[in-house]
TrEMBL record:
Designated name of the protein: L-threonine 3-dehydrogenase
Superkingdom, taxonomy of origin: Bacteria
Gene3D superfamilies named among the record's database cross-references: Medium-chain alcohol dehydrogenases, catalytic domain, NAD(P)-binding Rossmann-like Domain
Domain Enoyl reductase (ER): 8-337
InterPro entries, alphabetized: ADH-like_C, ADH-like_N, ER, GroES-like_sf, NAD(P)-bd_dom_sf, Zn_alcohol_dh
Record keywords, A-Z: Metal-binding, Oxidoreductase, Zinc
Example GO molecular function: L-threonine 3-dehydrogenase activity
Entries under Pfam families matching the protein: ADH_N, ADH_zinc_N
Source organism (scientific name): Coprothermobacter proteolyticus (strain ATCC 35245 / DSM 5265 / OCM 4 / BT)
CDD domains in the record: TDH (cd05281)
EC number: 1.1.1.103
Amino acid sequence: MLAIRKGSATKGVAMYEIDEPEPPEGWALVKVLKASICGTDVHIYQWNEWSQKRMKPPVTIGHEFVGEVLKVNKGSGRVHEGDIVSAESHVVCHVCRMCRRNMYHACENTKIIGVHMDGAFAEYIAIPEENLVKLPPSVPLEAGSVLEPFGNAVHTVQAVDVRGKRVVVTGVGPIGVMAIPVAKALGAVQIVATDLSDYRLKLASEVGADVVINVKEQDPVKVVQDLGGADVVLEMSGSEKALNQGLEMIIPGGEMAILGLPDNRVSLDLANDVVSKGITIKGITGRRLWETWDLGVSLVSSGKVDLKKVITHQFDFKDYEEAFSTMMSGNSGKVVLNISQ
């Protein structure tokens, strides 16, 4: 079969012909139909410090996908041959203290498909059956391919109370953009999006942002405070400056959920912007298993959230270099590879 792999500890990836995987007991073999490119895949392509610390090439990359179940090797009976599925990319241990507390998303021994084990940028993938999420026919294949990162957006919004609130999303890359219709569906009354990119701000408007702010042209703190302040801030950028701006604009007693990952340590005015204002801050990792998936699939299958506009580009599998270039340009939403028919 064909697979896009990190063949060596250098920049770039390549397409290889490798053997089709054989699923061990409790695992399934899935024919990958579509897969989307994540920021993690870009880090692996660029071979940055994060990927160098975690990967041991050669590894087939990719962890966001939709596919068809071909075989289950002594599974639970929850999924069957012919089912259309997406998948949770985090393979958990079930025995660490966090798993035993039902906090699987924070498993201390998490393995990630496409990072620690062969992933989904291939014609077939072997994956634990428990990680598969069966999709109803009302979920389009394109949407199914981005449900895993969509789950990050759902988890971030779900961690705070957005009902009747003014919500500011700082950083509208693909996951930040997806957080906007989720917040709207869960009851936010006004959504403000901030970013440096006019392209992404336009996309944010198209999916439901009521106010967009290019932080190169306007002071986001002043604009939001003139609106009455932020009840909730969803920090999706990983930017120290955006994080501090979010804390400044938030009202006393407000909430912040942080999904964005800074490259380095950050400096905050904890006394004035957090403690004195009584702000609640929550860090977000992964997706809650399986509450996030249940809500995410329900939002999409019911039509409450439409992910079509978030998926801005699709490429044939063999055009993966162009797909990566598009993703790295910053002028895209989610980029999808069409792998099999």
